[in-house]
Design a protein that fits this description.
Elements lengths: L8 E5 L3 H12 L3 E5 L11 E4 L1 H8 L4 H5 L7 E5 L5 E6 H8 L4 E4 H9 L7 E2 L5 E4 L9 E5 L2 E5 L1 E4 L6 H6 L7 E12 L9 E5 L2 E7 L5 E8 L10 H9 L6 H6 L7 E7 L8 E2 L2 E3 L14 H15 L6 H30 L4 H12 L28 H6 L6
Parallel strand pairs: 1-2, 1-11, 2-7, 4-13, 11-18
Antiparallel strand pairs: 3-6, 4-5, 8-9, 9-10, 12-15, 12-16, 13-14, 14-15, 17-18
Helix pairs in contact: 1-5, 1-9, 2-9, 9-10
């Protein structure tokens, strides 16, 4: 029997990490899921993402955690440096796993997107399909949500707005709420082929700027940079030339990485965040997750990780044929306080990045160096974040668990 004739229907607007995580988790719980993506393909924007222990445990719920853990590359030391190369603090890979129960795993975003999409039925993802929320629906009664597409309207029992920081779904649900604001800095991201010499992971902090380097499992290197700058800026020549001007005199291997980048392969984006939290993450039969719900500065590396958490927690609270209104309220109650705290903590760390005065930078660097005398000091920043565990439940479709190795506990 085709369960699509009886299963409740969920429509996900946006095929980013959070949207696909929610789609897979809902599918495993018995929902008929359709993902609508405006872009012509699932090619993600952005080069890499660091998956922290909290999101690895979330991915365990959909049978993907161990596949991602196998991509871990960090062995031995990493840490924070000055532009001249001096180590401010070192963090051992094993210390992260010992404290939080799992490693930090840097992956290419495309790797994660492909792994998530592979866990959905054929035809569940529709690319080249822009969608607009026409009616958020009512969680009680028969009024379903309505999504408008070029191929016609779709009625759904649940609509998930996973359409990113510029979310049209968020504006439709909360039209009077402030929009995300500029965080005071811009970012660049690059991906280079495998270098001849291995590179240690590190993050280097200068005056109003930072550079981070993360080796990937396939040998390539993901690097990111950030600098205090007016919003809307662009290089007069190209962004590779811009990062060379800003970071080309910093310690090795930063100049080597910049030299290996093609000028048209540098991604630049202004950073915006929503420090005034939404009143809720849902209205009617429509719910928000990821950057659509709580865009944050990237300084704690938790944007994508929190989107993954969102998708898993949402599926936990809205099993098919249960009280949808109560489930969505429980989702908001679970996610709003947690993500608000992380947005605000990320904003505080971001303010450290934008320091440009010599005395303030010296104080900042001294505080970072204190971790030399207390190996766990730097890791304590992630207490209450990386040690999160997903809510426990039993899926109704046990066949999925059998096929995909069950749920890691």
């Amino acid at each position: 029997m085709d369960n699509r004739t009886t299963a409740p229907r969920a429509v996900v607007i946006g095929s980013g990490i959070g949207g696909l995580t929610a789609a897979v988790a809902l599918h495993r719980r018995g929902w008929h899921v359709t993902v609508l993506e405006r872009a012509p393909s699932l090619r993600p924007v952005g080069a890499g993402i660091g998956l922290a222990p909290n999101s690895l445990r979330a991915l365990d719920v959909i049978g993907l955690g161990d596949e991602i853990r196998a991509l871990a590359t960090w062995q031995g030391d990493g840490g924070m440096r000055t532009p001249g190369g001096r180590w401010l603090s070192r963090t051992d890979a094993q210390a992260v796993a010992d404290r939080f129960g799992d490693p930090l795993v840097p992956v290419h975003r495309a790797t994660l997107i492909d792994a998530l999409a592979a866990r959905l039925p054929d035809g569940a993802v529709r690319t080249g399909s822009p969608a607009t929320l026409a009616d958020p629906g009512s969680p009680t009664g028969d009024r379903r949500a309505v999504v408008t597409t070029p191929d016609g309207d779709i009625e759904a029992d649940l609509v998930i707005g996973a359409d990113g920081i510029n979310s049209a779904v968020r504006r439709a649900l909360f039209p009077r709420h402030p929009e995300p604001e500029y965080a005071g800095f811009t970012t660049w991201r690059v991906l280079i082929p495998a270098p001849e010499q291995p590179i240690q992971p590190h993050e280097t902090w200068g005056r109003g700027a930072l550079w981070g380097t993360q080796p990937l499992k396939d040998g390539r290197v993901y690097a990111y940079a950030a600098a205090a700058a007016p919003p809307g800026g662009r290089a007069a020549d190209d962004e590779r030339a811009e990062i060379l001007r800003r970071f080309g005199t910093w310690h090795d291997p930063i100049p080597t990485i910049i030299a290996a980048v093609a000028p048209d392969q540098v991604l630049r984006h202004d950073v915006r965040h929503l420090t005034t939290p939404l009143p809720a993450f849902h209205r009617g039969r429509t719910v928000l997750l990821g950057d659509a719900a709580h865009p944050m500065a990237p300084n704690l590396g938790q944007g994508g990780n929190q989107a993954i958490e969102d998708g898993i927690v949402l599926a936990h609270h809205v099993p098919p044929h249960n009280d949808l209104g109560a489930g969505l309220a429980a989702y908001s109650a679970a996610r709003l306080p947690r993500t608000t705290g992380i947005v605000r903590k990320s904003a505080r760390v971001a303010r450290l990045l934008t320091l440009t005065g010599a005395p303030a930078v010296a104080v900042r660097d001294t505080l970072m160096a204190l971790s030399r005398f207390g190996p766990g000091l730097a890791l304590r920043t992630f207490d209450g974040i990386a040690d999160w565990r997903p809510p426990q439940h039993t899926y109704s479709d046990r066949a999925h668990q059998h096929d995909e190795g069950g749920v890691r506990r």
